[in-house]
Amino acid sequence: xxxxxxxxxxxxxxxxxxxxxxxxxxxxxxxxxxxxxxxxxxxxxxxxxxxxxxxxxxxxxxxxxxxxxxxxxxxxxxxxxxxxxxxxxxxxxxxxxxxxxxxxxxxxxxxxxxxxxxxxxxxxxxxxxxxxxxxxxxxxxxxxxxxxxxxxxxxxxxxxxxxxxxxxxxxxxxxxxxxxxxxxxxxxxxxxxxxxxxxxxxxxxxxxxxxxxxxxxxxxxxxxxxxxxxxxxxxxxxxxxxxxxxxxxxxxxxxxxxxxxxxxxxxxxxxxxxxxxxxxxxxxxxxxxxxxxxxxxxxxxxxxxxxxxxxxxxxxxxxxxxxxxxxxxxxxxxxxxxxxxxxxxxxxxxxxxxxxxxxxxxxxxxxxxxxxxxxxxxxxxxxxxxxxxxxxxxxxxxxxxx
Length: 402
Known about the structure:
- Helix 1 packs antiparallel against helix 6 (96-124), helix 7 packs antiparallel against helix 14 (306-332) and helix 13 packs antiparallel against helix 14 (306-332).
- Helices cover 84% and strands 0% of the residues.
- The chain is mostly helical.
- The protein is built from 16 helices and no strands.
């Protein structure tokens, strides 16, 4: 594959992966408005993040194995259409239940669009090249959380929260055209047998029986849970507790999200200098835990400010930008023969943990949002580090016995 074709492929995979942060973060500034219009309690807008993530977790579990059977592109078409249809439902919703249904459908589509790129990378790249491609995807994808809340805040202020979802619907339509014209198929469809439940479950059993996949998958999943604890509670923390206006909140969120780009860039530089990936990942996991614990201490001591909270969240996101590509690459390496199923399970676990973390912070009164956010972030960051330690010890034991 030539450099120009590689560039097109990486851009396409990055745009597909960016659907998720766009789908979540553009809606954040409109939480207060949609709560009022749909008759939801104050702070209940965070539940829409959990519903989106639940759909994200469930969708790939069927579509991932399907992509191993029929090819990657047809499944991507289905995912994009589901995402766009969900956006249209949210735009037209005249009740909370219809809106929630649209968000669930959007989540299913986003889950498909985010999991299949992992399988395509596994189909197309090996070793260090695969790790660096995942880092580049993380880097490009990191732009989405920066621009999404800024765009969302401007749309909410000028057109209202519903038009956020009309933009998401149109984004899906444009992305569908891009995938049709610019993305090549990397998995040859098989007609050897019909897709059934038994081989799907067998593929999932194979993945769950692989300790490397499980260990790195959980390390990544709890790290994502740490991030979504921040995302779901950020409106309540900054606009509620600190009294930041919606437009300013969009800029603050963009600055925090930029940490992912810095982290991904730093990760690529470190890998290009032949630093051991395990050491880079360990340092990032320790940094994530340290920043979350400092945030918790400042919340408990009552000394947290907008500036200190912003700085610690930027650091945490920087670490996330280093954790995700490394943990993802390590998890996917042992399972090339079931890359579609493995990527689906990987994303499902990731977003299920994200949904649980988002739901945990959304149950807390807005006055305690900062403490809840810091507590959940600290807990998930700790478990993420422990999962990395577990898989590292397991690998060392296997190497010694071998």
